[in-house]
Amino acid sequence: MSKAGPRNPSYLRFVITGAVVGLIVGSAIAVFGDSAPDYSGGTQLGLLAVSFGFLGGLLGGLAGILLERR
Length: 70
Known about the structure:
It contains two helices and no strands. The radius of gyration is 17 Å and the shape is rod-shaped.
């Protein structure tokens, strides 16, 4: 019988999951939050979705690293 070693997390899955959650949160803030007078609704949606998606991807990758070191 072979003894299975510890499983390492798939970083790509953590990054993608974090990015998708960030996109959803950013989109929700753009749609339901107060609108800025200088930007159109589509511009706000795009900026917040991309920004939160990027931050969510970073946090997801960090979560994967922390789970590996556990």
